[in-house]
């Protein structure tokens, strides 16, 4: 168990600059009332991760249905954290290094993303952000 905690600490140390930059970005966008999803801010359409923050807050309130509605991948987050914690185990190494697992995960993410557009769009969090940078850029040439 000590090795698992050490893996999580090492992961945090290894990615502390990107994590801090992301936190600063969220703080700035929240302070100014901007859209905090980089993809949504840029092109207006949500990314596959949109709704994860809201889903996390719903989970903290034990509202599992609402968390699933915001983003079903919130329930994969503990598996990801466990994968980081136990990456030293051979079975975890085999799973992480298997290309078919990676292809399957990418396919699953794309499938869920498409289904969210079909069944959730245009409701939050799969709504269109009208003040996106791409639309502002295009409006400069009209």
List key phrases describing it.
142 residues, mainly alpha
Structural write-up:
The protein is mostly helical. It is 69% helix and 0% strand. The chain has nine helices and no strands. The protein has helices at residues 2-14, 16-32, 38-43, 52-60, 64-70, 77-85, 90-97, 99-119, 133-140. Helix 4 (52-60) packs antiparallel against helix 5 (64-70). The longest helix is centred in the last third of the chain and has 21 residues, at 99-119. It is globular and about 60 Å long.
- Nearest-angstrom radius of gyration? 18 Å
Number of helices: 9
Give the rounded overall mean pLDDT.
90
Cα(first) to Cα(last) distance is 61 Å
- Low-confidence parts lasting 5 or more residues at pLDDT below 50? none
- Please report which band the strand proportion falls in: under 5%, 5-15%, 15-25%, 25-35%, 35-45% or over 45%: under 5%
Rough outline? globular
Indicate the structural class: mainly alpha
Query: SSE order, as H and E?
Result: HHHHHHHHH
Q: Helical content, roughly?
A: 55-70%
What secondary-structure arrangement, pairings included, does this model have?
Elements: H1 2-14, H2 16-32, H3 38-43, H4 52-60, H5 64-70, H6 77-85, H7 90-97, H8 99-119, H9 133-140
Helix pairs in contact: 1-6, 4-5
